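Hey,
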Amino acid sequence: MGQGCLRGLMLLLLSALFGLTACAPPRSSRITIGAKNFTEQVVLGELLAQEIEALTGEPVARRFYLAGSYLCQQALVSGRIDGYVEYTGTALTAILKQPLPPIGQRDEATVFREVSTLYASKYQVTVGRGLGFEDTFAMVVRGDDAKRLGVKTISDAVKTTPDPKGWRLGVGYEFQSRPDGLRGLEAIYGLKFAGEPRTMDLGLLYRALSNSQVDMVAGNSTDGPIRALGFVVLEDDKHYFPPYEAVPLFRNDSLRLHPKIQVAMDRLAGKVTADEVRGMNYAVDSEHRDVRDVVREFRQSKGLGV
């Protein structure tokens, strides 16, 4: 092949590559908020989205029901979402892969500082101030069993069980494998269970508990069905679980491009109590209300976004 043909072929290839690059979709200028695949996450994602929309006057894209912490993290670092709400204990152990601090040193401020420093240095992500509540793992039992057996703490559950073979446990997929999950809990408390735990989607845990398919579940302290169905959260009397403060995470480049995101984070800081988020979860889960309406009413009650 002659040099002229080679030059022509090279120009043709370069032109094709330029065309592909030009046609590649740029990163969206629209702010995108993510959320994991359970009710509270969708509530909090909607809260972020509505507050940003109110401040910017621009529509915010929602990418909700991402299946767990890992997918949310991947979406964040790859730029598919600009931000989402995470929990500090989850961030520390499941995402940043840090060991649990010694019991007695698992205070909220220490965990927040470590998480903030690591996100900034490793991922160029800013951790916003807490929304005002923690959503910790919670070992939940039926109210009738708690009363009959006299169990109020996890230590109480070690001493007595509803069945001679032990507690039948139900857990979500993350709890079984996380370093702040089942195995550490068993080791700290000496808990014994009747066989292997039943692993299921988080949305099915309370149904299984209500139907007596299991006797104890690893839920979340702000889950709406706990109050609605008369369940009891056992006190973590040995303080095994670290703090799980709800905090917004945003990419630094998103904050530079959309400075009003920071304004939204500042306005939401400290505004949501555990009871309030529990009430919103209940309204969506048990009353089957639209999440946008529930969040809009909450924001109006707080004078937000006006």
